[in-house]
Each structure stands twice: as C-alpha cells, then as structure tokens.
UniProtKB/TrEMBL annotation:
Compositional bias of kind Low complexity: 10-20
Organism: Sphingomonas endophytica
Boundaries of every Phasin domain copy: 13-105
Entry-linked InterPro entries: Phasin (IPR018968)
Higher taxonomy: Bacteria, Pseudomonadati, Pseudomonadota, Alphaproteobacteria, Sphingomonadales
This protein's name: Phasin domain-containing protein
UniProt region (Disordered), positions on chain: 1-31
C-alpha cells in the first residue's frame, strides 16, 4: 500500500512537472512571437514613413498644383495597398503563432 502511494505521488509530481514545463515553453513562445510581431510592425512603420517623406519631397519639387495632386493621389493609393498587405502579413504571423501554440506536442519552432 505504501508503494502504491509513493508511485501515485511520483506520478502526480511528474505530471505537475510536465505541466510546468509546457507552461514555461508556452510563455517563452508567446514572448518570442510578440517580439517577432513587434519587429515586423516597426519595419512596416519605417517603410511607411520613408514612402511619406518620398512623396513629400516629390510634392515639394512639383512644378504646379496638378502635379502635387497627382503625387498625393498616387501616394494615397499606394499607401492603401501597402496597408492591406501589411495587415495581411501581421494576420498571417498571428495565425501561424496561434497554430503553433495550440498544436499537440508543438515544439514551438516557428520563427516567422
């Protein structure tokens, strides 16, 4: 009877340790995923800023108001396309990390 209790105690301790290890790995994965997404967003903000300054430079060198309006129109159109693409990229990263987090026996090996 004592051996049975000891075995049950060891099994419970092992299960608790496994749960702790899984929780720790999940937390690490969430932190890495957050860092990857944050870096991607910063890259996108940088690209958007560069495009905005490029458009402002072009507008400053425009010869007339119609050229300024065309530059602005082109910028707004490309910014809209860029925003949709950037949102899609972030959405894909979030889905990828989410799938990796819930996958049974996941090694959390996705890096983005």
């Amino acid at each position: 009877m004592t051996d049975q209790r000891n075995d049950m105690g060891r099994a419970a301790a092992d299960a608790a340790q496994q749960a702790t290890d899984r929780l720790r790995a999940s937390g690490q994965h969430m932190m890495e995923s957050g860092q990857t997404i944050s870096t991607k967003i910063l890259d996108q903000v940088e690209a958007n800023t560069q495009e905005a300054f490029s458009a402002m430079r072009a507008a400053a060198q425009a010869k007339d108001l119609s050229q300024v309006m065309q530059i602005q129109s082109d910028f707004l159109r490309s910014q809209g396309q860029r925003s949709m693409e950037q949102a899609r990229e972030i959405g894909q990263l979030i889905m990828q990390f989410g799938r990796a987090a819930v996958a049974p026996g996941s090694g959390n090996d996705s890096n983005g």
